[in-house]
Amino acid sequence: MGNWNELNESLIDLIGKTPVVRIRHLTGEDDAALYVKLESFNPNSNSKDRTAYGIIREAERCGQLKPGGTIFEITSGNTGIGLAAIGAALGYKVVIYMGSHYNKERFDLLRAFGAKVVPFDKDEVDVDQLKEKLIKLQQITPNSLFSNQAANPANPSIHRETTAKEILEQTGGKLDAFVATSGTGGTITGVGERLKEAIPGVTIHLVEPENSRVVEGGEHGDHRIYGISPPKRPEVLNTEILDGIIHISDEDAWQTARDMAQKEGLLVGPSSGAAVWGAIKVARELGKGKTVLALAPDTGERYLSIGLYDEAHYQDDESLAAAELSNL
Ligand code: PMP
């Protein structure tokens, strides 16, 4: 995985080894130290490069997939982008099924890497039925893979092997709590399981939208923290490792993402805002002397066109207006 001080042989070598940075302005003096792992430092600016690579590597290891083959996935974006980029580098055809309501940038990014994109209308297509069809399509297509990230054990495995290992090295095992969101559950499961094996007493906290409490068996609700809390609880999510579930509103997740930019200089997306917001609560509860780490899955740049930093959220400084200056 990524080495900055030597020659790397391919895109694969650039995945992982993401940095951890302390958040200094969103916590109080009596709070635990809060650190954030910035997955935006992956080649496609999010944690899903790891997942995509883990899934492809496992399929190659089992002999299911050889270069020249085809990879299918249904995704709202980040995993598809990872599969498309890695597919381009390793010589695979990548076919991504994606709800047509997603923003143009996501489609453009997939196409940039040469993936075939098949848009579908989310109100007309049942995703479970589409999944069944892709399982059949994979079976009749030689040398192919349906990556099926929410049910594929290679997804949590790669986070156990890489993300968790990095966190253990970066913290030296001095960590009291880990906070993350869950989409497929791959990250929190792989990281949480490994941290619990390695650090006695570490607690794992999941942040879920308050109106979509799927992990607890509640109803799915429409929310705007993209990439997390899908309609069904994913198969790979291990709820036994969870010590707590923190509920968050869309607004708090989005505002914390903006605060991360304004107060820490870090561009992160709404799911990162959610994880940081949850981690601030945990840091307050644990208090000074303890250490909390939140995982930030992606970058705020992916959300420019959907208004994360819209002018409505900012106030211009009238005293610096050009008209005022002309009076000087
Ligand atoms: N945030 C974003 C932006 C994501 O794309 C995802 C993955 N869908 C997650 C969080 C959650 O990661 P995981 O699937 O590993 O639970």
TrEMBL record:
Organism encoding this protein:
Paenibacillus filicis
| Record protein name field | Cysteine synthase family protein
> Which EC number applies?
2.5.1.-
Sample GO molecular function, one term: transferase activity
The family database entries (CDD domains) matched by this protein are listed as:
CBS_like (cd01561)
Keyword tags = Pyridoxal phosphate, Transferase
Indicate whether Lipoprotein appears among the record's keywords: no
Q: Kindly list the organism's lineage.
A: Bacteria, Bacillati, Bacillota, Bacilli, Bacillales
Q: Which cofactor does it need?
A: pyridoxal 5'-phosphate
